[in-house]
Design a protein that fits this description.
Blueprint: H1 5-21, H2 27-42, H3 51-58, H4 64-75, E1 78-81, H5 89-94, H6 97-103, E2 105-111, E3 114-119, H7 125-135, E4 138-143, H8 146-158, E5 167-169
Helix pairs in contact: 1-6, 1-7
């Protein structure tokens, strides 16, 4: 994870700024969550090193439903649940799990010149820039939860996922 630490820090920093700008969290709550994030990073709890997780699950100052609703209303992106979906073989072989964990984002399919990417960190400009550079193509973004990204990455890492189709969540759901 140390090779992805810089990406992780940028992703969390720009996410925090976006959450404050969108009035989803207060600056004092963000500062406290950033302190906790640094503690997690020092303890090498790489999969727990998520500002969003600290804000939602530890500090309880942000609801995941509120964040997802904001993505739908403000950014106009759809939501997706990838729990019953597996990345096609070409993605599974080439996916950089470290980048996925650092950005809480997963590319999950490609159709012609379009990549399908699900992210719990969509609001982070550093995350979007990183994946646009990595994939070098047109991206169709989907919002998702930390749990969905975590479960998906665990399945990819263990190779136990089953082939299925994605189940997009309808707007406004």
């Amino acid at each position: 994870m140390s090779e992805h630490r810089s990406l992780l820090m940028r992703a969390n920093r720009t996410l925090g700024a976006a959450l404050v700008e969108a009035n989803l969290v207060k600056i004092d709550d963000l500062m406290a969550a950033n302190e906790r994030l640094l503690e997690l990073l020092q303890s090498d709890a790489e999969h727990q090193a998520t500002l969003l997780g600290v804000l939602m699950y530890e500090k309880k100052v942000l609801g995941e439903a509120d964040l997802l609703q904001h993505l739908i209303e403000t950014d106009g992106i759809g939501l997706i649940d990838l729990r019953s979906y597996e990345v096609p073989d070409e993605f599974r072989k080439d996916v950089d799990l470290g980048s996925c964990w650092a950005t809480w984002t997963v590319p999950f399919d490609k159709e012609e010149d379009f990549y399908f990417v699900a992210s719990a960190y969509y609001l982070s400009t550093a995350v979007r820039s990183h994946w646009e550079k990595q994939l070098g193509g047109n991206i169709l973004w989907y919002g998702t939860t930390l749990e969905v990204v975590s479960d998906f990455l665990e399945k990819i890492g263990s190779g136990t996922a089953k082939v299925a189709q994605p189940a997009p969540v309808a707007k406004g759901a």
